[in-house]
Fold:
Amino acid sequence: MSAASSEPIPEWRKEINAALVEMRAFSRRGFFTLVGLVVFSVANLAALVLSLRFVIPNVTYDESLLFKAGVPDDYPIGSTTIFSDKRVALNRDADGFYAISLICTHLGCTPRWFQSDAMFRCPCHGSRYLRDGVRFYGPAPRPMDVVKVGLAPDGSLFVDRSKIVARTDRQPV
Amino acid sequence: MAQTTTSARDQYLQKYPVFLRPAVLMVILSIEIGVQLWKSVFRHGLPLTDKIATRTALTNYWLHAHPPRIRKSHMKFSYTFCLGGISFFLFVLLTITGLFLMFYYVPSVQYAYQNMKDLQYAVSFGIVMRNLHRWGAHAMVITVWLHMCRVFYTGSYKPPREFNWGIGVTLLLMTLLLSFTGYLLPWDQLSLWAVTVGTNMAKYAPIAGPQTRFSMLGSYTVGNATILRFYVVHVLGLPLLASIAMMVHFWRVRKDGFSGNL
Structure:
């Protein structure tokens, strides 16, 4: 401490001190400096906020998350049908239909269905899932989501990827 | 000074017949203006002797970006391996080839892949231009990384160069981001899933993870909005920021000198 105090106060520090004293004294210059600083800060903050907000779009042009998937008779019981560009697998069991969102819970690639092994394998990092979407191998932290399957008034099936449902949910025919 | 010059010029003009004097005067004035211009740029006269040439080079940042005084041992190629210089060379190469690629590339889901294929098969020397850009980009990531290792192993990050180390880390980050954003642009399967994976990693970030991913993609999935965003950031945003950072970086190399005492 004694060494520090013996050193001369640098010129820039003196200038800042003088400016601070002036501001505390609430001189005209100090007042306008303060106003200027506040306005400058607010303007910058506003510019930052609007810039950040600008890059977050309000409207996107993604296709609808809901799509029609034919009539129930198209699918035999025990079948797994892949809608690869919709990234959905539609399973039909004895108790009804359910759909799995084919988005790997690790980093979002599309796991591929292997009929002979009755499993999904993700091409990116090798996660594996059973037919019902339950993970049994690899880095994925949880099972793939089950999304809503419904029956439209015209008798066709639809899949709504925006609605995640319980794993046990089935759409009976 | 001006008086002397004028009189010297006048004396010189006396040697010529009167009708030639205006022409000779024009020639002399042109030379004087030329010398003025030369001196304004290079500070010294024409490099007619070794001494003038050395002075010209050492006082000119463009001719000698390195500090004029360094240790003899640091003059050896094996001290820097020219890694920073090679990285900068690659940046220039990538800027130029990238500019050419832009003539044939439309950043949209509809055209991007086709345009990339056109560059390979339908544009004269397109495959050369594209591969210079592609391999140059890979090389730049490697040389920037090795440059950072070199600086680390020679202890060149220590004071008073810690600020330049910080700038360097920023430049490394920008190089990696340029690499990442450029990776999407060919719009093939590798691009699509690499960016899907990369942005999903961003989603794991704390506080604003999903929002970060959404604003990176401009959408919920990798699509048209994403390709446009990545394109703009790749060709304009990052190169601009990197150029500014590089200016500071090189200037600090000159000002801070090479590591080790002289």
